[in-house]
């Protein structure tokens, strides 16, 4: 197709999204109000998929264990382009009801922008006889880095030619950034309860947890620079005068390298085993989930970057600027015009590693996927997973960002549908990268982690039943 024709089609697509904006805004508002945290996104998932079904997309829900996931497809043949929609909220981040869940990461905008792009793409493809298939992936539970890993394990992304993702943010950029792989594990310790004043009769599971976390602290010196560990003691007992017989530590382990991640993860397991030996308790280790590092596809990231520049950054009205000045400037500084401009990216030979993680990582090992693509909905300095972001995700500023994301996703997809050279280059890059990494993709699904060789020694085997008397 001639480049003038492609430009004309992109212009038309942008106008169509503009025309559809009221519906998209009300959809994002509804999802914002539902504010459903990970794995409970029934209404949000139903709303997005029902609009897609009304627009002649074929909606499938094939995963029994992930009922809020869906795949909505329209079109015929190849290329098959995927748009990764998310819609889960975060606990405790409501900006209207204290303690209730809220969209502190803006996923109400994220999922809806994918819907907007997909519906317009259908119309544009119909109107211009463009071949190909658009698939919207309803991906639940991103905040626990869960949904896409399970969907990837079920093979849902296997037939894609490319996947696009975006995220609401504090800048307008399409970057060649890689995000860390993550192992998400729960360590449970089991002891023997006793009265606190006759503690010698018991064995404290909290002692084991504390010794375990000390082991983590001492491991830090021997970790490579970009590896990370964070943890919380999620269960530590009930009262000081009761020796706890159960404790639990929730640990995130991150690394930019898959092999290193798994080695570090096993090392941390050994800290748990050692803590049990020292405290005569026993343990249970469970992987909640693990996600792979993000392999950003430079070719696709550049495609998005060019289209983001074409669409242009958000323009704020006087009222919106006043709102930011009055509500947020004291906390975060001035919301300057510059923040709204495209920040572009610096294209290095190698990607930049970032400490955070996403379950998009797993998709990026199966099919070329763009790196982080963000559209500004908040002043720089506003943290993600924050109640101020919840407020902005339901504001006209957030909606403007969402429309820009929808337009950019649509225009980037039009490029892939009309110019096979881009996809060819994206796959060449993807295959080369996979070859260099020498790592077979295997989803890190929930599982018990067992060490039978240590199990026997670590088990608490009291010679006689321990007394729990004492007042
Ligand atoms: Zn997010």
Task: Explain how this protein is built.
It is a single chain. The chain has 471 residues and is an alpha/beta fold. It has two domains: 3-179 and 293-437, Aminopeptidase, CATH 3.40.630; 181-292 and 443-458, 2-Layer Sandwich (Alpha-Beta Plaits). It is 42% helix and 18% strand. It has 15 helices and 15 strands. It has helices at 3-19, 21-34, 42-54, 107-127, 147-153, 205-219, 258-279, 298-311, 318-327, 329-332, 360-364, 387-392, 396-418, 420-437, 452-458; strands at 58-60, 70-76, 80-86, 132-139, 162-164, 167-169, 173-174, 177-179, 181-190, 228-235, 246-255, 282-291, 352-354, 373-376, 447-449. The strands form four sheets. A five-stranded mixed beta sheet has the order 1-2-4-3-5, sandwiched between helices. Strands 10-11-9-12-15 form a five-stranded antiparallel beta sheet. Helix 3 (42-54) packs parallel to helix 4, helix 7 packs parallel to helix 15 and helix 8 crosses helix 13 (396-418). It is globular, with a radius of gyration of 25 Å. The chain starts with a helix and ends in a 13-residue tail after the last helix. Bound molecules: zinc ion (ZN).
List the helices and strands and how they pair.
Layout: H1 3-19, H2 21-34, H3 42-54, E1 58-60, E2 70-76, E3 80-86, H4 107-127, E4 132-139, H5 147-153, E5 162-164, E6 167-169, E7 173-174, E8 177-179, E9 181-190, H6 205-219, E10 228-235, E11 246-255, H7 258-279, E12 282-291, H8 298-311, H9 318-327, H10 329-332, E13 352-354, H11 360-364, E14 373-376, H12 387-392, H13 396-418, H14 420-437, E15 447-449, H15 452-458
Parallel strand pairs: 3-4, 3-5, 6-14, 8-13
Antiparallel strand pairs: 1-2, 2-4, 7-14, 9-11, 9-12, 10-11, 12-15
Bound molecules: zinc ion.
Zinc ion binds next to loops.
């Amino acid at each position: 197709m001639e480049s003038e024709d492609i430009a004309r089609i992109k212009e038309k697509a942008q106008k169509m999204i503009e025309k559809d904006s009221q519906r998209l805004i009300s959809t994002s508002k509804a999802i914002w109000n539902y504010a459903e945290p990970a794995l409970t996104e029934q209404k949000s998932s139903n709303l997005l998929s029902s609009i897609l079904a009304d627009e002649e997309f074929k909606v499938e829900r094939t995963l029994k264990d992930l009922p809020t996931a869906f795949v909505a497809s329209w079109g015929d043949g190849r290329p098959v382009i995927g748009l990764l929609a998310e819609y889960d909220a975060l606990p405790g981040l409501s900006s209207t009801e204290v303690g209730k869940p809220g969209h502190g990461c803006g996923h109400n905008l994220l999922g809806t922008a994918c819907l907007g792009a997909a519906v317009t793409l259908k119309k544009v493809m119909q109107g211009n006889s463009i071949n190909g298939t658009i698939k919207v992936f309803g991906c639940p539970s991103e905040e626990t880095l869960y949904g896409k890993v399970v969907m990837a394990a079920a093979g849902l992304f296997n037939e894609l030619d490319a996947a696009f993702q975006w995220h609401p943010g504090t800048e307008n950029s399409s970057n060649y950034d890689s995000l860390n792989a993550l192992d998400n594990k729960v360590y449970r310790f089991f002891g023997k309860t006793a009265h606190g004043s006759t503690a010698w009769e018991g064995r404290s599971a909290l002692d084991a947890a504390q010794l375990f976390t000390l082991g983590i602290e001492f491991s830090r010196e021997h970790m490579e620079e970009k590896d990370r560990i964070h943890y919380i003691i999620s269960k530590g007992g009930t009262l000081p005068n009761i020796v706890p017989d159960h404790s639990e530590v929730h640990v995130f382990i991150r690394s930019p390298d898959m092999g290193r991640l798994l080695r570090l993860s096993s090392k941390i397991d050994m800290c748990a085993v050692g803590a049990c030996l020292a405290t005569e308790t026993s343990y249970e280790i469970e992987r909640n989930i693990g996600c792979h590092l993000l392999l950003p596809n430079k070719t696709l990231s550049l495609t998005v970057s060019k289209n983001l520049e074409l669409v242009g950054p958000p323009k704020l009205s006087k009222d919106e600027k006043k709102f930011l000045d009055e509500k947020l400037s004291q906390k975060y500084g001035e919301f300057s015009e510059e923040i709204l401009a495209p920040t572009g990216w610096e294209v290095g030979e190698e990607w930049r590693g970032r400490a955070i993680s996403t379950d998009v990582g797993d998709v990026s090992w199966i099919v070329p996927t763009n790196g982080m693509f963000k559209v500004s909905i908040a002043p720089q300095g506003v943290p993600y997973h924050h109640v101020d972001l919840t407020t902005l995700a339901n504001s006209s500023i957030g909606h403007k960002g969402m429309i820009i994301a929808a337009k950019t996703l649509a225009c980037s997809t039009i490029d892939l549908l009309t110019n096979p050279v881009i996809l060819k280059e994206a796959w060449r890059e993807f295959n080369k990268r996979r070859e260099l990494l020498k790592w077979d993709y295997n989803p890190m699904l929930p599982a018990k982690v067992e060490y039978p060789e240590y199990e026997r020694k670590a088990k608490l085997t009291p010679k006689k039943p321990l007394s729990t008397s004492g007042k």
